[in-house]
Amino acid sequence: MSGKPRLTYLNGRGRMEPIRWLLAAAGVEFEEVYLETKEQYDKLIKDGFLLFQQVPLVEIDGMKMVQTRAILSYIAGKYNLYGKDLKERALIDMYVEGIADLMQMILMFPFSPPDAKEKNLDSIKERATNRYFPVFEKVLKQHGQDFLVGNKFSWADVQLMEAILAVEEKIPAVLSGFPQLQVFKTKMSNMPTIKKFLQPGSPRKPPPDAHYVETVLKVFKK
């Protein structure tokens, strides 16, 4: 086995995508194993790979890690993307948790019944423009720095960039009232590791389609 982290999940975004983003932003190459059947998933559980019978699974530094939040904080700490002290780490945690709440709505959107899609899209827009994006617009404006915490690139910046692009896919003009976030997005897009991740052919996954939804329901069916 190579020394690269090995990611086991479905061939789609889901809860693995922020992990892919963070590794890519840190300049770390990784390998992926895709689950396509319920039998593959059941075997991982039977073999004791999944502590809580859930994926994502990331094999890194001799560990088999589960739980998205634990994986992300380990990667952030390992690659110096987690602040310089406890106070900075607390700020990063607060920002990341807020973004995760918004991303949860986006994560569940493809599984909405057809008659609820429009209502759910309105909810995403309302939350993004009234609750979440104003926070980051204000933070960037108040301290006048390029990054959210400590004037240094961190996990919070990566997660915010992922969220901005995910919301823009659904609501293209969502940043129209947020000039600071527009500047932030441009700067992030031009960081070499993120620029590379945004190119075609990178490990970044496309927006979930009907096939992805079908695979998720098949693999995780009770």
CATH topology of the largest domain: Glutathione S-transferase Yfyf (Class Pi), Chain A, domain 2
Overall mean confidence score, pLDDT: 94
Number of domains: 2
CATH class of the largest domain: Mainly Alpha
Tell me roughly what share of residues is in helical segments.
40-55%
Terminal Cα span = 32 Å
Shape, please? globular
> Which consecutive residue ranges, at least 5 long each, have pLDDT under 50?
none
- Number of β-strand runs: 4
Q: Which structural category fits the helices and strands?
A: alpha+beta
Organism: Lanius ludovicianus (Loggerhead shrike)
EC number: 2.5.1.18
Protein name: glutathione transferase
InterPro entries: Glutathione-S-Trfase_C-like, Glutathione-S-Trfase_C_sf, Glutathione_S-Trfase, Glutathione_S-Trfase_N, GST_alpha, GST_C, GST_superfamily, Thioredoxin-like_sf
Layout of strands and helices, then pairs:
Blueprint: E1 6-9, H1 17-25, E2 31-34, H2 38-46, E3 57-60, E4 63-66, H3 68-78, H4 86-108, H5 117-143, H6 155-170, H7 179-189, H8 192-197, H9 210-219
Parallel strand pairs: 1-2
Antiparallel strand pairs: 1-3, 3-4
